[in-house]
Specification:
The complex is a heterodimer. Chain A is α/β, with parallel strands linked by helices. Chain A has 2 domains: 2-314, ABC transporter transmembrane region fold (Up-down Bundle), CATH 1.20.1560; 345-587, Rossmann fold (3-Layer(aba) Sandwich), CATH 3.40.50. Chain A contains 22 helices and 12 strands. In chain A, strand 11 and strand 12 (563-568) form a beta hairpin. The model of chain A is unreliable at 322-347 (pLDDT under 50). Chain B is of the alpha/beta class. Among the domains of chain B are: 19-186 and 337-357, Up-down Bundle (ABC transporter transmembrane region fold); 405-610, P-loop containing nucleotide triphosphate hydrolases (Rossmann fold, 3-Layer(aba) Sandwich). Chain B contains 20 helices and 12 strands. In chain B, the strands form 3 sheets. A 6-stranded mixed beta sheet of chain B has the order 6-9-10-3-11-12, with helices on both faces. Chain B has a 4-stranded antiparallel beta sheet with strand order 2-1-4-5, covered by helices on one side. In chain B, a hairpin with a 2-residue loop joins strand 11 (579-584) and strand 12. The chains are: A alpha/beta, B alpha/beta. At the A-B interface, helix 2, helix 3, helix 4, helix 5 and helix 7 of A face helix 2, helix 3, helix 5, helix 7 and helix 8 of B.
């Protein structure tokens, strides 16, 4: 929570004024019993019968107190709302920026749904907590304390009773809350479980039925659901105690108070009006305590959310982890193509060298890449082929430093990539990921992702090269709108557009990660021919499971279980590499 | 007002689809709700009784205290005597009443607690069981998120809102009535003041909420936009990063964020005015009661008043002041209670919708399928998902035991539909499918489905360990059997490399596993069960061809003498099938073995040859 408090800094004024005005309102409320006491004393005082103007004065005073209370309360609500929404705005900004700054390993670890929940539900809960906190957290204790103080000003002797009752009440409320909060956490965990089971029973409907597991699934659900219900009831039994218990305690307090008050009045130490005032203060305490207890629940929930958010902030961002140059500011991508082309590197190609590179994702797990060494000359095409899980994607993910190698060295133009500026490096690499992702917006906007300044001609050229012109035509031109995740396009259409998007960037290093899997053979061939003609002559990496996609490459790396079991051209590998030959033959079995 | 434990639940959508809920629909729903709560009727009655007790005694406590104060006030008069006994008597009564209130309230809380959570549990269990029996056509055509939110949030809102709303409304009405009666008995004139002023707070609340409604709508629109941006960008964060678009996206985000803050501020501020405003109305009411009460007390003391507007004592005045607060409270809550109830009914309607959905036809009278050798006959089958869009027409096929049937064809030609029909996920519109000569509609679904082993293109894994997922097929399998199955499916080597091997916990939907790895696990499942017939629907689409060939070998060994159906787009995987069905637009256009079809030189030959186009190194 502490680390989130800084988001109130810009709203310091509001965060102080809101509770202050709330206290002001409370203070005016505390005067009401005094007015009533005066009123009662006057009407029970028989020496001054018929003083109607005094009653009117009291009435006016009560109205004014109410009105002033209204005004200060509204003011407080405004400041609280402003501070809370401002808080959440800045928090959301920072959290989103932080999430965007995370590296691939952290993204894998957190998971998309967690990140989205943190950004939405948790931030909202935290905002609500701040709002309620500012509004009520000072008010309730203030009224309780104020009522006790007022009691002291009326009669110190009776006020002792107040202190006793308040202490007992706080103990009771505290105990109930303390035993309840852990239960509520358990409820949340169980609820997540039940939610997940529901989802699974839907998403797995076919499999569940195929294995005739309907009854088992339902009984597993019943079990979890029964557990949830039991914990909820347990929590309810404890929290349900709160209201009746405080009610009884306060009323017993009142009974003692009146008893005591009676004696004090008979001694002449108190007036009847004062007894009534004390009675009213006691009632006020009850009302506030109940509000306070509910507030604690809200705050607790907000704190839990705040802690979860705080945990996300604890995760070091990509730049902070091992890149000393850039700490805070996010990479910008606004310069013109001329600038992007760079002045010092005219030919826009690079040679890349892997020196004994290995990678493991978790400390305790096996290596996914072991001892990979190769050299890709400028402008060459490198094919990477291998089975599922052989490490193909892991290998190319190392080039733009999505992951850092855990052993060995990768050099671009002779420089270790860990010494390169991360953003610069990414700019030089154009990647077409396995999963063809497009974003909501027009086709042109999507194509300009890697190069905001690209001209219409450049877009057309990229579309031609990626055999995607017909996609654009089918959709009605480059300004046609793509829906979220490219829902309104087929897999093959999406794939070609993602290739075009990478080409618009005019990268020095172009990586196609199984990027033609959804394309038919003819289109794939055309694409590969086009890639050979790229004017910028980039170094190209083609990852594929199809030998037809890589057989034209200058160098083919054959991966098997993370190791390079073969390296060379198609012809060489056919002779020397058994794994490669096997792949080739399964796909091109000649009719015997 | 008990501690709101349910708030931890994602609350039901307030903008529940109300179109499904006309006036008559609402009545219907209320009837159904009452029916579903029937088994709790005695508990509910008892709860209501306790509520009544608690209300009456809550109202009596101030009266006894007022009586005591009156005796104290008497001290100020000339005939002032210290009525110790009388005061003690009143106070003891007050204490006992307070205790009764406490006990009956807690009792009511316990009962409500029990009813609520039991009702919610029952509803969830019933809904989930129902899901197991809903036809797949329903599940396929409804959003999963929507059904989940019905089972989780709506069920919760329904039980919670209904019961809380109901008891709150009940105690509220009882409190209002009780206070009115008690007040009228004490002094009709002051009562009139209270009755006239209090509803003002209702109007104020209504006034504010009708104006803030639009603001909340604006807020949820902005929030929706922001969530969808977050969803899109975080969901594809790796691509965002690969194109270093972070700053641009953050800018986009900030724009929405700014607007969201403005709309939220408005909505939160204006809606938060309700409390101070109603409190002000209450303050006015309180002041008026104090004033009129004081006048009456004065005139009473002076002996001027008539019987009706007769003077009141100081004690009565304090009772009135206490009542003024108590009487207004239900009014302040009434709008939220009403919306709570309405929401609960809307939620109930959504839950009932699922529960009342037509289930799969009853198969309890169906026959068991035994000694399956693998003869399958499809005769004159017509089928369509949408009535006016015929998909499969006049499909005929005879499969002998142990034959391998491959189905090929372009996307959308109906390949997967055949699988749906074979497994009886869907029923044919006309014609019949027979296994071992028995019409599958006369069989028990379980019996039919157990006869098949199925691997689909869409992998499905549940949250749990790898082991849990494999053993799903056969919970009693031994460790050795499991590992043997994993080896056969070539999943063993990647499982072994996971941090905890077979005990590695994978998240929902396979978590960090690759698509190919997920498919391998699904295949392992089937390897473990070895059913008499096999269905592979693009089962190896995400697996590289080399591994695929090996798995095919394992499949072949396993399927020796067993009938199998294979859907695949890679022709290499189906070449050695006994029968290849070439489908196009719902019809089988070609049928025969690989060499027959190639020789025929039709559509299949065209498909087959296209994959070799341009394969020679460029």
């Amino acid at each position: 929570m502490k680390r989130l408090l800084k988001y109130l800094h810009n709203y310091r004024k509001e965060s102080i004024l809101a509770p202050l005005f709330k206290m002001l309102e409370a203070a005016f409320e505390l005067f009401v019993p005094l007015v009533i006491a005066a009123l009662i004393d006057r009407i029970t005082d028989f020496s001054q019968t018929g003083d109607r103007s005094f009653i009117l004065k009291c009435f006016a005073l009560l109205l004014i107190l109410g009105l002033v209370g209204l005004v200060s309360s509204c003011t407080a609500q405004y400041f609280a709302a402003k501070a809370a929404t401002g808080f959440s705005k800045e928090l959301r900004h920072d959290l989103f920026a932080h999430l965007l700054s995370l590296g691939y390993p952290e993204i894998d670890r957190l998971g998309t749904s967690t990140m989205i929940t943190r950004m939405t539900a948790d931030v909202n809960t935290a905002q609500n907590g701040v709002n309620m906190f500012l509004r009520l957290f000072l008010r309730s204790p203030f009224i309780v304390a104020g009522a006790v103080v007022m009691a002291f000003t009326i009669d110190a002797f009776s006020a002792g009773l107040f202190v006793g009752v308040v202490i007992l009440l706080f103990l009771a409320v505290g105990l109930i809350m303390r035993s309840n909060i852990p239960l509520l956490k358990k409820v949340q965990t169980k609820l997540d479980g039940v939610l997940n089971l529901t989802r699974e029973s839907l998403s797995g409907a076919r499999v569940i039925r195929a294995f005739t597991l309907e009854e088992q699934t339902a009984s597993h659900f019943r079990e979890e659901n029964g557990d949830l219900s039991r914990i909820q009831q347990k929590a309810g039994r404890i929290s349900g105690l709160l209201n009746p218990l405080t009610y009884v305690m306060i009323n017993l307090g009142i009974v003692f108070l009146i008893r005591l008050g009676g004696i004090r009045v008979s001694n002449g130490a108190l007036t009847t009006g004062q007894v009534v005032a004390l009675y009213n203060y006691m009632s006020q305490i009850l009302l506030e305590l109940i509000k306070f207890a509910n507030l604690i629940v809200t705050i607790n929930r907000a704190l839990a959310s705040a802690n979860r958010i705080g945990d996300v902030f604890e995760i070091p961002s990509e730049d902070a982890s091992g890149d000393p140059k850039r700490q805070q500011d996010l990479p910008r991508n606004t310069e013109t193509p001329a600038e992007a082309a760079g002045t010092d590197r005219k030919d826009k190609t690079a040679h890349i060298e892997f020196r004994n590179v290995s990678l493991r994702y978790h400390e305790n797990s096996d290596e996914v890449l072991t001892g990979i060494s190769f050299r890709a000359e400028k402008g060459q095409t490198i094919g990477i082929i291998g089975g599922t899980g052989s490490g193909k994607t892991s290998l190319i993910n190392l080039i733009p430093r999505f992951y850092d190698a855990t052993g060995g060295q990768i050099l671009i133009d002779g420089t270790d990539i860990r010494e390169l500026d991360r953003t610069e490096l990414k700019k030089r690499v154009g990647i077409v990921p396995q999963k063809a992702v497009l974003f909501s917006g027009t086709i042109a906007e999507n194509l300009r992702w890697g190069n905001p300044g690209a001209t219409m001609e450049e877009l057309d050229e990229a579309l031609r090269l990626s055999v995607a012109e017909d996609v654009v035509r089918a959709k009605g031109g480059p300004d046609a709108v793509i829906e979220q995740n490219g829902r309104n396009l087929s897999g093959g259409q999406r794939q070609r557009l993602t290739i075009a998007r990478a080409l618009v960037k005019k990268p020095e290093i172009l990586i196609l990660d199984d990027a033609s899997s959804a394309l038919d053979n003819m289109t794939d061939l055309k694409l590969r021919t086009n890639l050979r003609e790229l004017s910028a002559n980039p170094t190209v990496f083609i990852v594929s499971q199809r030998s037809s996609s890589v057989m034209g490459a200058d160098l083919i790396i054959v991966l098997d279980d993370g190791e390079a079991v073969g390296m060379g051209t198609h012809e060489e590998l056919l002779k020397t590499c058994e794994v490669y030959r096997e792949i080739y033959e399964t796909q091109f079995k000649k009719e015997a | 007002m008990a501690l709101d434990t349910s708030g931890f639940v994602p609350k039901g959508n307030l903008n529940t689809d109300s179109s499904a809920l006309g006036k008559t629909g609402q009545k219907e729903t209320i009837k159904k709700v009452l029916r579903s709560l029937r088994k709790y009727r005695f508990l509910i009655l008892f709860s209501l009784f306790l509520a009544l007790v608690s209300v009456i005694f809550t109202l009596l406590v101030p009266i006894r205290i007022g009586d005591a104060i009156d005796r104290i006030a008497l001290l100020n008069t000339e005939q002032g005597i210290w009525q110790k006994e009388a005061i003690a008597g009143f106070l003891i009564q007050a204490a006992v009443f307070a205790l009764i209130v406490g006990i009956s309230t807690y009792g009511m809380n316990l009962i409500n607690n029990r009813i609520t959570y039991h009702a919610v549990r029952d509803i969830r269990n019933r809904t989930l069981e129902k899901i197991g029996h809903l036809p797949l056509s329903y599940l396929d055509s409804h959003s999963q998120g929507d059904i989940v939110s019905r089972v989780i949030a709506d069920a919760d809102q329904f039980a919670d809102g209904l019961l809380m709303g109901f008891t709150q409304a009940f105690t509220g009405i009882m409190t209002i009535l009780g206070t009115l009666i008690f007040m009228l008995r004490m002094n009709p004139a002051i009562t009139l003041v209270v009755v006239l002023v209090t509803p003002l707070s209702l109007f104020v609340a209504k006034f504010i909420s009708s104006r803030t409604y639009a603001m909340f709508r604006d807020q949820s629109i902005e929030r929706g936009k922001q969530t969808s941006l977050i969803d899109e960008m975080i969901g594809n964060e790796k691509v965002v990063k690969a194109f270093h678009k972070e700053a641009d996206i953050l800018e986009q985000f900030d724009e929405i964020n700014e607007r969201l803050q403005k709309t939220s501020l408005k909505a939160i501020f204006y809606s938060s005015l309700t409390n101070p405003c109603t409190r002000f109305v209450n303050a006015v009411c309180y002041a008026l009661v104090a004033m009129t009460g004081a006048f009456f007390a004065l005139s009473g003391a002076a002996g001027e008043g008539s019987r009706l507007f007769g003077g009141i004592t100081v004690g009565t005045l304090t009772v009135f002041l206490a009542y003024a607060n108590q009487y207004t409270k239900p009014f302040n809550e009434i709008s939220s209670v009403i919306s709570e109830l309405q929401n609960a009914i809307a939620c109930a309607a959504r839950v009932f919708e699922v529960m009342e959905e037509e289930p799969e036809s009853d198969d309890s009278g169906g026959r068991e399928l035994s000694d399956v050798s693998g003869t399958v006959d499809i005769e004159k089958v017509d089928f369509s998902y949408v009535k006016d869009k015929k998909l499969i027409e006049d499909l005929n096929l005879h499969v002998d035991p142990g034959q391998r049937v491959a189905i090929v064809g372009p996307t959308g030609c109906g390949k997967t539909t055949i699988i749906n029909l074979l497994m009886r996920f869907y029923d044919a519109d006309s014609g019949s499918i027979r296994v071992e000569g028995k019409d599958i509609r006369d069989l028990k679904r379980h019996s039919l489905r157990s006869a098949y082993g199925m691997v689909l293109q869409e992998t499905w894994l549940k949250a749990g360990t790898i082991r849990d997922n494999i053993l799903m097929a056969r919970p009693d399998a031994t460790e050795e059997e499991m590992i043997a199955a994993a080896k056969a499916s070539h999943a063993h080597s990647f499982i072994r490399r996971l941090p905890k091997g077979y005990d590695t916990v994978i998240g929902e939907d396979g978590g960090s596993l690759s698509q190919g790895q997920k498919q391998l696990l699904c295949i392992t499942r089937v390897m473990l069960k070895i059913p008499p017939m096999l269905i592979l629907d693009e089962a190896t689409s995400s697996i590289d061809t080399r591994t695929e060939i090996r798995i095919q070998k394992a499949f072949s060994a396993m399927m020796e003498g067993r009938t199998s159906f294979i859907v695949a787009h890679r022709l290499s995987t189906i070449m050695n099938s006994d029968i290849i069905l070439v489908m196009r637009d719902g019809h089988i256009i070609e049928q025969g073995s690989h060499s027959d079809l190639l020789a025929a030189g039709g559509f299949y030959a065209e498909l087959y040859n296209s994959q070799f186009a341009g394969t020679s190194p460029a």
